[in-house]
Amino acid sequence: MNFQNEIIKWYKLNKRDLPWRSTTDAYVIWLSEIILQQTRVEQGLPYFNKFLQHFPKVEDFANASETHVLKLWQGLGYYSRGRNMLFTAKQVMELHGGIFPVKYDELIKLKGIGEYTAAAISSFANNQSKAVVDGNVFRVLSRYFGVEEPINSTLGKKEFTELAQSLIEDQQPSLYNQAIMEFGALQCKPKSPLCSICPLRLNCFAFKHNKVDILPLKLKKVKIRERWFNYFIGVKDDHVLTKQRKPGDIWEQMYDFPLIETLDNEEYLKPDFWNQIKYLFGNEVNIKLLSQKKHLLTHQIIYVQFFGLDNYIVNFNLHAEIKSVLIEDFKALPHPKVISNFIETYL
DNA sequence: AACGCGGGGCC
DNA sequence: GGCCCAGCGTT
After folding, report:
1. Structural domain that includes position A112
2. A247 touches strand B (CB under 7 A)
3. CA neighbor of A160 nearest in space, from A170, A148, A172
4. Are A246 and A195 found together in one domain?
């Protein structure tokens, strides 16, 4: 039996029952695919259900506010996905009359839909013969066929894409694409793959050559940036000080507190730090350290300090980015995880 | 081609 | 602590 048939046979015996597999509605599949980008199924599943409940049709999504979308997305990360979905939902209403496209060439033009997602939607919703190439597929193909080109090199991406596309010819596209990804997720896992019970092990290059734990190859690692965030919590008459984060940095468009970012762990003890605080909150202001958190992200480590403000005055004309809003309204806004965690404990 | 973008789970 | 997860957009 060839590779594809083994994969499909394995899939029929071992597949999970996932909600987006029981539909060919391109909108629903799009919802699931965007949510699952760089996201584990278990983490994305509750968000998928929540979004489908709030926005049953693409029209409902298109009519939502960005704040509402980001609020529903809160906690999932990579928030540009949510913003791009709103943009694309509007596009689908305007350019496609509310009918979500199912052809690869149309899908690839939409914001937030790249090669993987266009292949996924077009194959699942339309049985178009486009091979998905995601992290699972890279791993399975690299190990089974012994492809040793790095998966994140230009040549590697080309090789894997061509190999994947050659394998899907003459297959049922939807079934085969689902199967190879599920096989990668459950059987041919990154760590501790289940080789001893794998039906493909006898013809697997990596198993034969004892390279399971080094394949696939990947070039270098991301450099992690360290940052120091000092947040200031001003509460007065059921209102709290807040600001919206600007483009060009993490958590774009989401809401946090007035912030002084420092360049290291010591700087907040120095006079300049106090000058900034007095500039923002007046000369009579007092601060009290409320909590410290080390917030770990893939590309950044953020050391966060929360200071409570006392006896403060804000000149809202001078500091137009800072707003004072009802605490209950503030809680309804979208916040990054480190902020929503703080809110739960302190507000 | 390289980089920025979240949060969580696993080893 | 490092790696990976149904990747994509920007520069």
Report:
1. 3-208
2. no
3. A148
4. no
A249 shares a domain with A133? no
Residue nearest to nucleotide C9 (CA to C1'): A112
Q: Is A220 left (phi over 0), alpha (psi -120 to 50) or beta?
A: left
d(C-alpha A97, C-alpha A115), whole Å: 23
Q: Is residue A336's pLDDT more than 90?
A: yes
What are A66-124's pLDDT values in tens digits? 999 999 999 999 999 999 999 999 999 999 999 999 999 999 999 999 999 999 999 99
Residue A216: inside a domain: no
- Whether residues A272 and A153 share a domain: the answer is no
CB neighbours of A166 closer than 8 A, spacing ≥ 6? none
CA of A66 to C1' of C5 (A): 26
Does residue A251 lie within 7 Å of nucleic acid chain B, judged by its CB? yes
CA distance A180 to A8: 8
Is A219 within a domain? Answer: no
Residue A259 Cβ under 7 A from any strand B atom = no
Give yes or no for a contact between A159 and A149, defined as CB atoms under 8 angstroms apart: yes
In this complex, the answer to whether residue A37 has its CB under 7 A from any atom of chain C, a nucleic strand, is yes
Instruction: Please give the span between the terminal C-alpha atoms of chain A, in angstroms, as a whole number.
Output: 61
